[in-house]
Amino acid sequence: MATDKKMGWKELSGGDVLEAGTAKAFETGDWRTERPIHDKDKCINCLFCWVYCPDSAVIVKDGRVMGIDLVHCKGCGICMTVCPPRAGAIKMVPEKQLK
Amino acid sequence: MPGIKTAKTGNEAIAEAMRQIDPDVVAAYPITPATEIVQIFSQFVADGKVHTEFVAVESEHSAMSATMGACAAGARAMTATSSQGLALMYEMLYIAAGLRLPIVMPEVNRTLSSPINIHGDHSDTMGARDAGWIQINCENSQELYDSVLQAVRIAEHADVRLPVIVNADGFIISHCMEVIEMLEDGVAKDYVGEYNPDRYLLDIKKPFTLGALDLQDYYFEHKMQEVDAMKRAGRVILEVGKDFGKKFGREYGLYEKYKLDDAEIAILVMGSTAGTAKNVVDELRGGGVKAGLVKLRIYRPFPFKELAGELAHLKALAVLDRADCVNGLGGQMFEETRSALYESEKKPHIINYVYGLGGRDIDVGDIKKVYTTLQEVASTGKVIQRVDYIGLRE
């Protein structure tokens, strides 16, 4: 819940986040030092990466991997690790090389 | 309303109160001298006398964690422990208070190791005094039974929402059989009422996050809410204690005054020793000595303002602590009582006695000596020894 004006203790709700799904509004993509590059041609759409991604950052549509949500991807590389070696559809590339 | 007269040990009295409260979840791990509480209670579970989900866990750290989880989910949850068990919960105690979970936990006071010792003193709960838990202390099984029931009302009060520890002196209260008056089951159930939390995690209509990361920008404000709740708890404790008196004839406050108002010398003490000291006061009064006593019931929140008002008129006051801060001075209550009186224009000479560590007995003779010293301090206006130790061999 990004807000410019910070609430005082008398107006705050006690320690709770009262909306669901607020993590979506928080950009964690800027923590990333390595970016997963997904190769659609090599991808066998086993969806292992989608299952294992701790940030739900693998975008899937109609059972097919469409790419990575870079606003939330922290660059942990789990998707690359679980991608079957013979497919090898995900590579981690340092962000520095991409800029 | 007439209750049921019955003979119960302190542990049995607690277990009976828990049976009547019939919490949704009890998670516990046994430890002397509190073991019987959950042992008896688990029998109630096995016999179908309560609808409680009993979770036998592998440690007190887990006991408190499971109790907190259940409470956060929306259940009325309880546990009970003592000494090392409470120490093992330490990390969780702060979290329960910070998450504002209204857990009620009977605690049988036993010293902390080392040297290893299973007997009673207050060092265990004194270690948790800054954890954000309300602490109620009891002189006997009757107060214990009544206070466990009241604790539910206090903890769950909308202005409080803090966890409560109800203390019983190890063995002296926990294992001593006394006649107590219990409420009838239905009356007790009505008294504690239904638990209707205003927010709980299993409420799928109002999803929310509990215990989220709270850094430099908000932690302080949330901690202040906890501090404020503890300040407000005093008023709620008084209301609940008064209401209990109106309903059942036994009224409770933040402390109990015993022949204090016209006293010149007095003792401030907590727990079972207050009973012994009252006998000494009676005897001294018989001899014309203006002796009095204050039994502190609510240790957290500490009634700073109220106590200062009650004690200011005395000539000499002895604070009896069943624990030592090990800070180079003396006991916890002594420091806080002195602090409470610091701003009073008129105040007594205050001395401190540490007593009963590791279950060391304290008797009428010991307490008489304290009053004799108080008489000397009152008449001479001089304190020879600020902090002393009762029953300690040199």
- How many helical stretches of chain A? 3
The helix content of chain A is: 10-25%
Along the chain, the helix and strand elements of chain B come as EHEHEHEEHHEHEHEEHEHEEHEEHEHEHE
Using the CA coordinates, give the radius of gyration of chain A: 17 Å
Secondary structure: helix percent of chain B: 40-55%
Instruction: Report on the biggest sheet of chain B.
Output: 6 strands, mixed
**Which structural class do the helices and strands of chain B define?**
alpha/beta
Instruction: Tell me the CATH topology of the largest domain in chain B.
Output: Rossmann fold
Our estimate of the beta-strand percent of chain A is: 15-25%
Written overview of the protein:
The complex is a heterodimer of chains A (99) and B (394). With 99 residues, chain A is of the alpha+beta class. Chain A has a domain at 36-93: Alpha-Beta Plaits. Chain A has helices spanning 48-52, 78-82, 95-98, and strands at residues 16-17, 34-38, 58-61, 64-68, 90-94. Chain B has helices at residues 10-21, 35-46, 60-73, 83-88, 90-98, 123-126, 141-156, 185-192, 219-248, 273-286, 304-311, 332-341, 364-380; strands at residues 4-8, 25-28, 53-56, 77-78, 81-82, 104-109, 134-137, 164-169, 178-182, 209-210, 255-258, 265-269, 291-296, 298-300, 316-321, 349-354, 387-389. Chain B has 394 residues and is of the alpha/beta class. In chain B, strands 11-13-12-15-16-17 form a six-stranded mixed beta sheet, with helices on both faces. In chain B, strands 5-6-8-7-14 form a five-stranded mixed beta sheet. In chain B, strands 3-2-4 form a three-stranded parallel beta sheet. Helix content of chain B is 41%, strand content 19%. Chain B folds into two domains: 4-194 and 211-248, Rossmann fold; 255-389, Rossmann fold, CATH 3.40.50.920. The chains are: A alpha+beta (99), B alpha/beta (394). The interface between A and B is medium-sized, with 13 and 20 residues. β1 of chain A pairs antiparallel with β10 of chain B, so a sheet runs across the interface.
